[in-house]
Amino acid sequence: MAQLWGGRFTKETDRQVYEFNASIGFDKRLYRQDIAGSIAHVTMLAKQGILTEDERKAIIDGLISIQEDVENGKLVIDDTCEDIHSFVETHLTSRIGEAGKKLHTGRSRNDQVALDMRLYTREQVCMTDALLKQLLETILHVMEENVETYMPGFTHLQKAQPTTLAHHYGAYFEMFKRDRLRMRDIFQRMNYCPLGAGALAGTTYPLDRDYTAKLLGFYGPTLNSMDSVSDRDYLIEFLAALSMVMMHLSRFCEEIILWNSNEYRFVEIDDAFSTGSSIMPQKKNPDIAELVRGKTGRVYGALMGLLTTMKGLPLAYNKDMQEDKETTFDAFDTAQGCIQLFNGMLSTMKFHKERMAVSAMNGFTNATDAADYLVNKGVPFRDAHGIIGRLVLYCIEKDTSIDALSLEEMQGISDKFESDIYDAVSLKTCVEKRLTVGAPGPEAMKKVIALHREYLAQEEDWFQKQDENI
Fold this sequence. Notes:
The chain has helices at 15-21, 24-27, 31-47, 53-71, 84-96, 109-145, 165-190, 209-215, 225-230, 233-260, 287-310, 326-348, 353-361, 367-376, 381-398, 407-411, 421-424, 427-432, 442-469, and strands at residues 150-155, 158-164, 267-268, 350-351. The chain has 470 residues and is mainly alpha-helical. It folds into 3 domains: 6-105, Fumarase C, Chain B, domain 1; 110-116 and 164-205 and 216-354 and 449-469, Fumarase C, Chain A, domain 2 (Up-down Bundle), CATH 1.20.200; 367-425, Ribonucleotide Reductase Protein R1, domain 1 (Orthogonal Bundle), CATH 1.10.40.
């Protein structure tokens, strides 16, 4: 059992204790970050005269060879070491000898793991942002193609007013846009380097923390060594942001599941993103949408787990913080996989546009417009509301719609109705006259779509610059 701290102890750790304490089974995915941090640390140590140039070169060459061997399968990360840090240092020393033992000069595993997690999480934030951008591109494409695709809008799952598919998708564009903005906020807050904080109180070695931070693409070093090793706020923030992403995906999935049902028949999910039944040959199930909806709770669980772990910890580092990894890694993988699969499902989905329009016509979604029509004829709105309510009741009794009534039938309820009522309550009119910013009218939607295109281009430039710095 390779450990970095045996000098103080007179007997070997109990095997069960060792396995309970070890983190190599899950922190092995941090090997690239651990090696990158070590290369930066050694480069700084040589710059400061703490290591010689020969030692720096030997250590860096050894670290690079370890990474190459792990990635080409020559070196397997196994449980002979308790964590990824001891794995790298043990193999480095076995390859280059005494120089390898100087790798840890001026560094603790506390600031080392804090750095590794920060580097890894920063990368995941950028990856998540890229996936969200792809999803927004898909949503925006649907919006551009469906400015005049009419459908019912809902409140309380009851048909409310007519809208368009572009307008409906636009609501989700705003949600995922906010999710991207949260990624940017998290990146800016977390992008400071904890390396050099030591165990909790820094070090007596003349480290250049600004230089190390620059090498690793950070804005600068963290400013309190105790906070540096005990801070997991950035993880909690990211998990909270991922929970929001999953909540938005889940809401969208819920609607797609409804729209895909035989009762709605608004959409047809592509065969590649559907499954069948083992007993019922007619079934085509929206399993991907259901699984995304279900996996939302999994990401929520990671957030609540880490919040609970951190809530009672005194300063500075505590072993409890090792519990920040397993469920967090799972949440990263789950959320990113869900975004990718959802985007694939969304980009291949077909819309039954005529069915959507018929549904909007048959659900009295034009009732508000009919009331507004009467207001324009001089009827007080409250009276107009009552007249249209009686008109709707009449339609329900006759199993028909407002626009299918004869003018004589309408005038039997109010003499204010004239022949222009039919144009006033048509789907086209109901949608097109809604021209305020954020409304579904085609001119309003085209302006919003243009703003969305501009936004995506600007946000791409911002994250591209961060990637270049990293």
